[in-house]
Amino acid sequence: VKTSGKRNYCFFDAEFSERLRARHQYEMELRYAIEHDQLVVHYQPRVSMANGITTSMEALVRWHHPTRGLVEPSEFIPLAEEAGLIARLGERVIDKVCAQLAFWARHGRHVVPVSVNVSALHFQDADPAQTLASCIARHGIDPGLIEVELTESSMMGDSETVASAIRAIRNMGITLLVDDFGTGYSSLSQLQRMDFDVLKVDRAFTAQLEQSREGTVFYTAIITMAHSLGMKVVAEGVESIGQARVLKSLECDEIQGYFVSRPLPPSEVQPLAPQVSFA
Ligand code: C2E
Ligand code: CA
Ligand code: CA
Ligand code: CA
């Protein structure tokens, strides 16, 4: 018994150290990727329910890995956060978005604002307001073209550093959006006090819309309260015309999701926004 216990321990130990080694390797590759331009940004439109016109696009990062192909953010954002690389990654994404907007503007293209995802951990390692200000200045773009998406967890613990960074972003004329709304615990009045303009409702609620009454109940309550507090509501993850129709009847302001468009590489983003009909 003693021997086999020991053997098990050794086996586990070998497996564990192999996992550690693989993780370390992946982390080094990610560090390299961030510094050597292997990150690419795709853009997903968000459209107005009033007229189907694109109001904004969300910047979603992908990793163009030399052997693994295009890697989804869910596979490397958590690692970037754990390894202390998220501030640098966020900076690269913001810089790329500003460069892209400047490029489109130079070519006389119709441009709409782009929202960037800023991780809660970015605030711990650096000042995202500073990052945004320097990228906007470097590329000479209008700050009104940049929007920032923050999850509720960024605002928790109400640290004064985070609050003042958010105020600084706001004061630059940047629109603030709450991402994945409904998955955290912040109150709407708290979000309004912090001057958020838009609530992006998590796609889990959108998926429930045609399935059960709960989705509709949740959306109805949120839309009523958000509107009375002067905030707009965006539904995330809209995949069907049925969901879009329900959301329109509930007076949801904007939608985003595969029903409108998948995230697209810059070369496939249409100069003139796609128009969607909900009829
Ligand atoms: P998110 O911010 O909630 O972004 C929306 C995600 O939902 C995207 O996944 C998008 O492709 C996906 N999506 C859009 N429409 C639909 C739909 O109709 N159905 C379904 N099932 N999914 C839809 P993606 O691009 O894989 O990004 C995943 C997450 O990674 C993002 O979730 C965000 O939290 C994070 N992320 C992406 N880019 C960045 C970035 O530049 N910085 C940081 N910090 N996080 C990022
Ligand atoms: Ca987002
Ligand atoms: Ca989201
Ligand atoms: Ca406001």
UniProtKB/TrEMBL annotation:
The keyword Transmembrane applies. It comes from Noviherbaspirillum album. Residues 23-277 form the EAL domain. This is EAL domain-containing protein. Keywords: Membrane, Transmembrane, Transmembrane helix. Signal peptide: none annotated.
